[in-house]
Design brief:
Number of helices of chain B: 0
Shape of chain B: globular
Mean pLDDT of chain B: 97
Structural class of chain B: mainly beta
Number of strands of chain A: 11
Largest interface: A-B, 22 and 24 residues
Number of helices of chain A: 0
Largest sheet of chain B: 7 strands, mixed
Strand content of chain B: over 45%
Low-confidence stretches of chain B: none
Distance between the termini of chain A: 39 Å
Structural class of chain A: mainly beta
Helix content of chain B: under 10%
Strand content of chain A: over 45%
Oligomer: heterodimer
């Protein structure tokens, strides 16, 4: 059974930092592009960042460039998102998602972890 | 950036009726278009990819059509478990990967 389990969310003050983790199992993690997708309360889905299978390519939505860093550890079947200089508008449920190729949809999704940025 | 526009925002349908959801791309995405279903408190679930191919385990009452800039998701006979929010997403030209704003299918 495929599982993606996110952790690391919580309440943080504006300007603060958080590191999200996603533990993968049930599929060949190292063969998948991995992404973070977020959803603000009551809003739609927004892609945040992508990382290639070997970590050699990374892409970000403009609003997080320079503040967020995506990374992965294939030996640990894990995906990470380091979030710095957090803003109120970063408040959202953050989903870990996997897709097999760069012209594929998101096959697998985690259940999400809530990040709240507030003073 | 390719903008994805879904209509209507809300669709009120009676159980057993047909539902037709639309998605428009601001430029051609070929057939690289997916549909997802999301229920409250749950993660999205892949329904359709390649504009018209059902994902594993998706019932035949869900069908997708279209190519280029105009796409449709049809649910032939709505079941109680189909009331949810549906998102389209293009993966043809990125970054960024982009989603539509969603269509909420509610019980009439």
């Amino acid at each position: 059974e495929v599982q993606l389990v996110e952790s690391g969310g919580g309440l943080v003050q504006p300007g603060g930092s958080l590191r999200l983790s996603c533990a993968a199992s049930g599929f060949t993690f190292s063969s998948y592009w991995m992404s973070w997708v977020r959803q603000a309360p009551g809003k739609g889905l927004e892609w945040v960042a992508n990382i290639k299978q070997d970590g050699s390519e990374k892409y970000y939505v403009d609003s997080v460039k320079g503040r967020f860093t995506i990374s992965r550890d294939n030996a640990k079947n894990s995906l990470y998102l380091q979030m710095n200089s957090l803003r109120a508008e970063d408040t959202a449920v953050y989903y870990c998602a996997g897709r097999y190729g760069d012209t594929n949809p998101f096959d697998y999704w985690g259940q999400g972890t809530l990040v709240t940025v507030s003073s | 950036e390719i903008l994805m526009t879904q209509s209507p925002a809300t669709l009120s349908v009676s159980p057993g009726e047909r539902a037709t959801l639309s998605c428009r791309a601001s430029q051609s995405v070929s057939s690289n278009l997916a549909w997802y279903q999301q229920k409250p408190g749950q993660a999205p679930r892949l329904l359709i990819y390649g504009a018209s191919t059902r994902a594993t385990g998706i019932p035949a009452r869900f069908s997708g059509s279209g190519s280029g800039t105009e796409f449709t998701l049809t649910i032939s006979s709505l079941q109680s478990e189909d009331f949810a929010v549906y998102y389209c997403q293009q993966y043809n030209n990125w970054p960024p990967l982009t989603f539509g704003g969603g269509t909420k299918v509610e019980i009439k």
